[in-house]
Design goal:
about 45% helix; about 270 residues; Arc Repressor Mutant, subunit A; Jelly Rolls; six-stranded antiparallel sheet; single chain; four-stranded antiparallel sheet; alpha+beta
Length: about 270
């Protein structure tokens, strides 16, 4: 089963380019890569995936995520054996930032898929059968959930009730108050746990402390503001996302994006 979509007329954070499962996979050869991010997992048989001339087997319950415009090729390891796959290709105006958050460079290989991740495409497929605006918004939300499942798989996330009691209120507070000064003690007041314990649980989930997550989130917001408001002064952008020290903002932005805010503006 396979669905393919045109790019939506409205600017979307994430949108689905194609999705499918129980697909009898034939040879795919893209020397110049693909314009969308591409997820591929094996359901039956074994495939061989070549990315920038490096080969990897893709066995049942394994998956791989490939960055846009990266040369790749994949096919069944045995021309006499069927290779059945599930796949998901997506793009959107927030896709690059989310892939940076995920740590994607050229590709990410997942040697064992959790049940939730392994069945995501099967269980979410019906959400993608409609193509109206409301459905497209819901699909964007589903794609975000998929990316978070990949993040969980990358870090072997503790998804227990106790962990979610800590992670969710921290995320809610950070996203609501990122433009203001935030301390670990303020976050502890939201969770009711000690700073040391909450930071350990949060780091097991996201691979970074809450304040490092906050710093990265602010920089992603700053990049968005620079894109939307190229006429804004650098200091205004920094202040709007919670950096009161303009020198620190410029330093952190360059560390994260390898460009100063001014250099980024000049590239647009």
């Amino acid at each position: 089963m396979r669905l393919a979509f045109k790019q939506p007329s409205q600017d979307m954070p994430l949108f689905c380019e194609s999705i499918g499962y129980e697909w009898q996979q034939s040879l795919v050869n893209r020397p110049n890569g693909y314009y969308a991010f591409h997820w591929l997992q094996t359901e039956m048989g074994t495939g061989i995936v070549t990315i920038n001339r490096q080969q990897r087997l893709l066995k049942p319950n394994q998956g791989i995520l490939i960055r846009t415009n990266v040369s790749h090729r994949y096919q069944s390891i045995d021309t006499h054996q069927k290779w059945q796959t599930a796949f998901l290709a997506f793009a959107g105006n927030q896709a690059d930032e989310l892939m940076t958050f995920l740590g994607l460079k050229t590709s990410l290989f997942f040697p064992a898929l959790s049940p939730e991740l392994a069945t995501f495409i099967h269980q979410s497929y019906a959400q993608f059968e409609r193509n109206d605006l409301v459905a497209t918004l819901r699909q964007s939300s589903e794609l975000y959930r998929f990316i978070m499942l990949l993040k969980q798989a990358e870090y072997g996330i503790d998804n227990t009730y106790q962990a979610q009691k800590i992670v969710r209120p921290i995320l809610a507070y950070l996203t609501a108050h990122y433009h203001s000064a935030i301390t670990n003690e303020q976050l502890a007041a939201q969770t009711g746990y000690s700073v040391a314990y909450q930071n350990r649980i949060f780091k097991s989930t996201y691979g970074q402390t809450p304040l490092k997550y906050l710093n990265d989130y602010r920089l992603q917001k700053a990049k968005r503001l620079l894109t939307l408001h190229p006429d804004w002064q650098i200091q205004l952008v920094g202040n709007s996302v919670g950096f009161n020290d303009i020198s620190r903002f410029i330093h952190e932005f360059k560390q994260y994006y390898h460009l100063t805010p001014r250099q980024f503006k000049q590239m647009m």
